[in-house]
Design brief:
homodimer; mainly alpha; Arc Repressor Mutant, subunit A; 128 residues; 2 domains; two-stranded antiparallel sheet; DNA-binding; 6 helices
Amino acid sequence: MKLQQLRYLVEVARQGLNVSEAAEALHTSQPGVSKQVRLLEDELGITVFERSGKRLTGITEPGKAVLEISERILREADNLKRVGEEYAGEDTGSLNIATTHTQARYVLPAVVSRFLGRWPKSPHVAPG
Amino acid sequence: MKLQQLRYLVEVARQGLNVSEAAEALHTSQPGVSKQVRLLEDELGITVFERSGKRLTGITEPGKAVLEISERILREADNLKRVGEEYAGEDTGSLNIATTHTQARYVLPAVVSRFLGRWPKSPHVAPG
DNA sequence: CGACCTTACGCGTTACGTAACTATA
DNA sequence: TATAGTTACGTAACGCGTAAGGTCG
């Protein structure tokens, strides 16, 4: 089960059971959506969409439950990304180092290198 | 962001910040867990685990939020699988067909074939 | 015949496991 | 020195897009 399969599933439902429109809304190909929806149905052992031949004509009872839960999961996944944005910037700041020429020349480089290795997001290292 | 990354993350936290034990509990390799945790942290822009050199020593504040949400997502994912089990069996039954030899010989095969194509889970087709 | 879903297939990406490296206690 | 996490790398699996195939209205 993959998050993207849930997105595909939910989008198909939101687009009035139209796989083509769902694919376009998700900026991907229609066969991809079709396949992933199938795979998810297989994995869950559930038929989510009623099919009349090759058209989707409705949502089954278990399908409704699946869609509800899927939407919850996707909402939570969005929340997860939002956590990143909320806390972004809070662990930033600046660190000034004063020392002698000798230390700066022979000791600092190694120390700074290790520091940058440990905190990869540190953007700026400048003299002055 | 992938569901497995969330599983890895949560398991590491549950195993007392021990990546090796988490890997074993998940029946996978330790480097895999390490890498996926890193990738998730990068994608979210968040440091979940405090690191002292190469040991994990604590959970950051945003990390706690991430873990909470991740656990919710995983619970919901389990619910999804459970929906499958709950409804399993409800759309099963048997269908008996009585007809003439001629029909059975020349018409039935195509019809049965289409039926099986439409309901792939049909396990048994037997004369009787 | 037109719209639309599914299957087939080739390609690029990604995850995973093994091995080697590094750092901490 | 022992333990634990990370990096490197080769392989296998997976997702995706294009093209071809079927089916219903």
